[in-house]
């Protein structure tokens, strides 16, 4: 072997080790384990039909901002409502506790279950950042106005589910996930209840997984009993406030 050749070999090896070191550093010290954030909206009339609450809200409200992996990531990080005091007027309007409107327990629950996991990312590593970002995305997405804009409004008539899905996915340019209540196996209709829009870790919209089986099963448990992916073949009921 000539000396030129040997030194090339050394360079190659150096390069290999440098690459390997970078790769393993990346694998061994992940900052967090989730790759997707799911912004979940629910329709108060449908939710209260299941939970026996009495909501007078006729806008889609926030259910939560959920990382696609991990739950209850840091139980020693207490929820403290005074840290989000400036957000409260918006929280009460956009992220209301439909069961006990005067309480902060819904936000506390969402913080422990999902917020402490989201907080593994620097961009969400405080209660103010987490709740503030959820509100920001909620207003940016503005689902309520988008539905209205396309004349998808609460009604006593049924919609063709595939029509709603096509229009809304088309508007956002990604697949959203629509969840319905299926009153009984052969009811012949389903009730629109929850709409999820997915984001990358740097808050660009991305496709949501449509099949419920593709969602991490521990996350799927979040859906209240009765919510499952809407069936494209079944007429969908989008209930007006007073109907359920
Ligand atoms: C689902 O989430 C749990 C809790 O974070 C995790 O332990 C598990 O590996 C995840 N499963 C898949 C298939 O991502
Ligand atoms: C949990 O939260 C506390 C309070 O913010 C923080 O000091 C601690 O480092 C966190 N632990 C982990 C494992 O992130
Ligand atoms: C909640 O946060 C406020 C503002 O930072 C602080 O003064 C207060 O001590 C905290 N309360 C608890 C119970 O940690």
UniProtKB/TrEMBL annotation:
GO biological process per UniProt: RNA catabolic process
Signal peptide: 1-25
One of the record's GO cellular component terms: endoplasmic reticulum lumen
Catalytic activity of the protein: a guanylyl-uridine-RNA = a 3'-end 2',3'-cyclophospho-GMP-RNA + a 5'-end dephospho-uridine-RNA; an adenylyl-uridine-RNA = a 3'-end 2',3'-cyclophospho-AMP-RNA + a 5'-end dephospho-uridine-RNA
Cellular compartment(s): Endoplasmic reticulum lumen; Lysosome lumen; Secreted
Entries under PANTHER family matching the protein: RIBONUCLEASE T2
Family under the similarity heading: Belongs to the RNase T2 family.
Name of this protein: Uncharacterized protein
GO MF annotation terms: hydrolase activity; ribonuclease T2 activity; RNA binding
């Amino acid at each position: 072997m000539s000396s030129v050749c040997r030194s090339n070999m050394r360079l190659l090896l150096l390069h290999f080790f440098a690459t390997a070191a970078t790769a393993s550093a990346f694998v061994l010290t992940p900052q967090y384990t989730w790759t997707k954030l799911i912004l979940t909206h629910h329709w108060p009339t449908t939710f209260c039909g299941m939970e026996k609450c009495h909501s007078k809200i006729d806008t889609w409200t926030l259910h939560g901002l959920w990382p696609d992996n991990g739950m209850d990531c840091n139980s020693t990080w207490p929820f403290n409502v005074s840290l989000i005091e400036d957000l409260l007027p918006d929280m009460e309007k956009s992220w209301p506790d439909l069961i006990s409107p005067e309480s902060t327990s819904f936000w506390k629950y969402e913080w422990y279950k999902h917020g402490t996991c989201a907080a593994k990312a620097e961009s969400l590593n405080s209660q103010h950042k987490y709740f503030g970002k959820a509100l920001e995305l909620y207003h940016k997405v503005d689902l309520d106005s988008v539905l209205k804009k396309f004349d998808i409004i609460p009604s006593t008539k049924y919609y063709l589910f595939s029509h709603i899905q096509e229009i809304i996915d088309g508007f956002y340019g990604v697949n959203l996930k629509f969840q319905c209540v299926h009153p009984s196996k052969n009811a012949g209709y389903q009730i629109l209840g929850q709409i999820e829009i997915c984001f990358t870790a740097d808050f660009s919209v991305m496709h949501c997984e449509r099949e419920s089986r593709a969602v991490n099963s521990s996350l799927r448990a979040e859906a209240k009993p009765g919510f499952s992916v809407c069936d494209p073949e079944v007429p969908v009921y989008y209930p007006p406030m007073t109907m359920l």
